[in-house]
Amino acid sequence: MRLSGFYWKDPFLDFRLDEAKANILTGNTLEFDAKGNLFQEPIRTRIIGKTGWKKSIRGNGTFYYPLYNDWKWELDLDRISVRNFLPVYHLWKNWIRTDIRTRQEKLIPEVRWTRTPFYKYLMEYTTFTVQWKSKSFRFGEKDLGNLTLNGKVVPFFSRLDLKGFREGNQFLEAFANFTFGQDNPYMDFRIKIAEMPWEESVNGFCGSWVIPETVTSDTTIRLFGDDFLALHNSLNVSHNVIFNRSRFQDKRSLPLNLREPSDFGYEHNLLPTLSYYRNIFWKNETADLKGYGAVEGNRVRISANGMLNDVFISRKFKEESGECKLESVGDR
After folding, report:
1. Quick check: 53 and 29 in contact, CB under 8 A?
2. How far is residue 309 CA from its own chain's centroid?
3. Which helix or strand (DSSP H or E) is residue 23 part of?
4. DSSP string for residues in 36-102
5. pTM to 2 decimal places
6. Of 115, 133, 148, 300, which residue is most buried, by most CB within 10 angstroms?
7. CA pair distance 168, 283, nearest whole angstrom
8. Whose CA is closest to 19, among 31, 32, 7, 2?
9. How far is Cα 58 from Cα 79, in angstroms, rounded to an integer?
10. Tell me: the pLDDT tens digits for 91-115?
């Protein structure tokens, strides 16, 4: 079976399918090959997998025969450019809010789709392996070069794994566990990034902005519940990040006379009603400072001490109107 000449364009997607071909091979194996353009860039893809029926048992002891699938998806792109993705985020957020309001106004019950016949018969026993390649991956203005993503999704075992390689070296690892089929579903998601080139400005406390050469981070998100309120109230985020070899774009009134470049990092813990910083540090050849911080309203209060230019210093300061207000000094 062949297909050609398909075209779709809207504010969020520009896709042209020049040629597509599907074949049925021996052993219940299906094959799909296609090429075209995505946002005016060449795209080539191939999907191959096996499918069939398997015997499974229900909770009441009776048998049923859902579809099982084992697929592999290969995708090759010449270039990916990620920038100005906030409109997509706002569209997604507004869609969720509209859906919640509609359900509340019309008293529409929640549908647990993992218990629907569609999921139980067609999706539960699906395994998906992906390999996506791009010759050039651009994040903002920074070209990260060749990029490869390898991943696997196994819904039956509630597992997702993903690894990313840049110029052949691994820099990204992500995995998730989820139990969406239960009455009180649980999910945890973890993503680790090692020495990812960045060179974009980031907030360095009290209105100071730093530009790191690379970013190393380890972020875990945990939550559970069967509605958005429960998910919000159970949210637990732990974000460990290091901005490597950072230079100041704007120091403002940060009361630390740091030489450049320096490494800067922290662990940020975010709960529904509480936010705080641990293991804050600034480090270079002349500085070895450590501290912690508490978030009060929209302001951060920080305590820091350690060696700076061969002198022990101690500082307490807080953020007010985007600048630092020094509260105490305890140098020795």
Report:
1. no
2. 38
3. strand 13-25
4. EEETTEEEEEEEEEEEEE--EE-TTS-EE--EEEEEEEEEEES-EEE---HHHHHHHHHHHHHHHHH
5. 0.74
6. 300
7. 30
8. 2
9. 47
10. 877 887 787 778 777 776 766 666 7
Specify the long-range contacts of residues 282-289, CB closer than 8 Å, at least 24 apart. Answer: 282/256, 282/258, 284/258, 284/259, 284/260, 285/259, 286/259, 286/310, 287/256, 287/258, 287/259, 287/262, 289/256, 289/313
- The residue assigned the tokens 């090429």 is 35
Mean pLDDT by 10 residues, the chain (332 residues): 79 85 87 89 91 84 87 88 72 78 73 73 84 82 81 81 87 85 78 85 79 92 78 87 88 77 92 89 91 84 88 86 76 66
Contact 319, 254 (CB under 8 A): no
**DSSP-derived 3-state class of residue 157:** helix
Domain ranges of the chain: 182-332
CA torsion, ordered 149, 154, 160, 166, to nearest 10 deg: -10
3-state secondary structure of 162: strand
CA 210 – CA 120 distance, rounded (Å): 50
Please tell me what DSSP assigns to residue 114: G
Q: Return the amino acid letter for 40.
A: Q
Percent of the chain surpassing pLDDT 90: 19
pLDDT at 281: 93
